[in-house]
Specification:
Blueprint (H helix, E strand, L loop, with lengths): L23 E8 L5 E5 L6 E6 L8 E4 L7 H6 L5 E2 L5 E5 L10 E10 L1 E3 L2 E2 L2 E6 L16 H13 L6 E3 L3 E2 H18 L6
Parallel strand pairs: 5-9, 6-10
Antiparallel strand pairs: 1-4, 1-7, 2-3, 4-6, 7-10, 7-12, 8-9, 8-11
Length: about 200
Amino acid sequence: MATTAYPTTSHPWHGISTFLEGDIVQFYIEATPFETLKYELDKPTGLLSIDRPLHSALPPYAYGFIPRTYCGEGVNELNPNSTTGDDDPLDAFLISEVPLTRSGVLARGRVVGGIPMVDDGEADDKLILVLKDDPAWGGAREVDELPAGIIDRIRHYLVTYKPGSTVDLGETYGSEHGMAVLKASVTDYLTTFTPVRS
């Protein structure tokens, strides 16, 4: 009996490219504003797993990470208040007028800025993306083109969603620094992981 080759699912952290065309990046949605559980990537398998129930704050916008990024020494050096990177992919929020209701999917977005965050001493920056071709925000290039209320909701979520942690947020930064953090996280990834050759 002949065997048939079949495709396998790419690991969302390691098996998907970071950049698409120009300044558009890939984004993997781990959680949406409509879920009362916090999902997180299970790093060995690439599947979403339940991290914990959310008893209070829900993410105000789709939340996840950018593939093939890693918060190591390069990201740490760009965050003046951290002592190390958090050893995770680079986190991001994806802003869209259209409700994003499904986790475990890829989206495309543009970096418009971010928030420097330190979680128990570790650099844990949160980039802010706008959904590509979004009818309201898809044309934004800088975080200050978004309503202040959007950033206020994100900042409130970050200081309330993780009880027991000491979280410090710095001043929101624009796209230039956001891209610097992204590029540092790509370099950190490349110096940390060795690609698997098939």
